[in-house]
Amino acid sequence: SQKIEQNSEALNIQEGKTATLTCNYTNYSPAYLQWYRQDPGRGPVFLLLIRENEKEKRKERLKVTFDTTLKQSLFHITASQPADSATYLCAPQTDSWGKLQFGAGTQVVVTP
Amino acid sequence: EPEVTQTPSHQVTQMGQEVILRCVPISNHLYFYWYRQILGQKVEFLVSFYNNEISEKSEIFDDQFSVERPDGSNFTLKIRSTKLEDSAMYFCASRPNKKDTQYFGPGTRLTVL
């Protein structure tokens, strides 16, 4: 069955450093991979989408890579700020228009 | 900026009771979804809805669940006879077309006692 794995341990990082999160998937070949942010008690908020033919995507201080050989995506937050503290969810998809299947998420805590 | 809205924000009900969770998707959106998140667990897909019919549903979405778009603005999720294990956050999402991403509402916290 399809599996999506994200680091279950919280990532504690100092303000100004780069946070790197990992998303691994098995038993399927997604054509797209999305990253969402979720704050406590709130719905997921879309951040970035990367396609299988794109190696890297950037948006402001965020960077996503997608390695279909390793079946892995890396999500980077550069120059992290306390406001970046949240849980980050990855969602590999086989098609762009169907349901989203999320990983369990990785919590990021940025301390001043 | 347009947002998906959900009501109520918190619903408390007794086991066996029916509940209706309401969502108002963004106005020009055509695809609608319900997800749930049990406390401490991942966000799980329940059902997708397009052109006034269900396009896909998960194993969780059994006969106790139903969805409806009763008018041009609301999208509802009904649970006929709630169980303790239905306690969760329920998120509605919508998207304007197949290529755009999904926009999530703030959620309804359902507590079944």
Keywords for this structure?
heterodimer; A: 112 residues; mainly beta; Immunoglobulin-like; 5-stranded antiparallel β-sheet; 5-stranded mixed β-sheet; 0% helix; B: 113 residues; 7-stranded mixed β-sheet; 4-stranded antiparallel β-sheet; 11 strands; globular
Mean pLDDT of chain A: 93
CATH class of chain B, please? Mainly Beta
CATH architecture of chain A: Sandwich
Count interface residues per chain for the largest interface. Answer: A-B, 20 and 26 residues
The tally of domains of chain B stands at: 1
CATH names the topology of chain A as Immunoglobulin-like
Helix content of chain A: under 10%
Mean pLDDT of chain B: 95
The CATH superfamily of chain A is Immunoglobulins
Unreliable stretches of chain B = none
- Helix/strand order of chain A: EEEEEEEEEE
Shape of chain A: globular
Q: How far is it from the N-terminal to the C-terminal residue of chain B, by CA?
A: 37 Å
Helical stretch tally of chain A:
0
Main β-sheet of chain A: number of strands, strand sense, barrel status? Answer: 5 strands, antiparallel
